[in-house]
Amino acid sequence: MTTPAGMTERFEAFDPDRLVEIIAAHADMDGPLLPILHGVQAAFGYVPQAAIPIIAGALNLTRAEVHGVVSFYHDFREAPAGAHTLRLCRAEACQAAGGDALAAHAEQALGVPFGQTTADGGVTLEAVYCLGLCASGPAALVDGKPVARLDAGRLDRVIASLAS
Ligand code: FES
User: Fold this and answer.
1) Segment (H or E) for 93
2) What spacing in Å lies between the alpha carbon of 22 and ligand 1's midpoint?
3) Is residue 126 within a helix (H) or strand (E), and if so which, with residue range?
4) CA of 143 to the centre of ligand 1 (A)
5) What is the tens place of the pLDDT at every residue in 111-159?
6) Cβ(158)–Cβ(6) under 8 Å?
7) Quick check: 125 and 106 in contact, CB under 8 A?
8) 118-122: long-range contacts at Cβ-Cβ below 8 A with a sequence spacing of 24 or more?
9) Over the chain, what is the mean pLDDT?
10) Of 52, 80, 47, the residue nearest 66 (C-alpha)
11) DSSP assignment letter at 7
12) Residue 97: CB within 6 Å of ligand 1?
């Protein structure tokens, strides 16, 4: 799903009939679970709890198996994102460039841990693991747009821009 730079991604409201279409589009693949989950997230912006038993039934898996995959992969959200997403790289090269301190600063500045959305629904803070910007880390995706060479001051300006 492409969005203009700086715009928030827009998603469909969860619809079980749409979910069945997504499942059907991938059901003949080898290992269809991950492609289905990616399709669900692309459509709805997250993997709704209500989708899990439907996916499990279609693939002859248990709910726990499907939920285990959703919770294992950082790419999948279990709740809708806020109006903006800040995805900070937590992989090795960015950590070596000060990423750990920056991650702590992001949590403090937003008042939420990774994987959560601010109380006003404004910003979801998420971890990503390498954006291909290792030489200019710490790096992040802000509403899908790459931002490199972050430090606390620059991150504060990014966060302030999301609030305006
Ligand atoms: S480790 Fe952060 S962009 Fe590669």
Assistant:
1) helix 92-94
2) 32
3) strand 123-128
4) 17
5) 999 989 999 999 999 999 999 999 999 999 999 899 999 999 999 999 9
6) no
7) yes
8) 118/82, 121/82, 121/83, 122/82, 122/83, 122/84, 122/162, 122/163
9) 91
10) 52
11) P
12) no
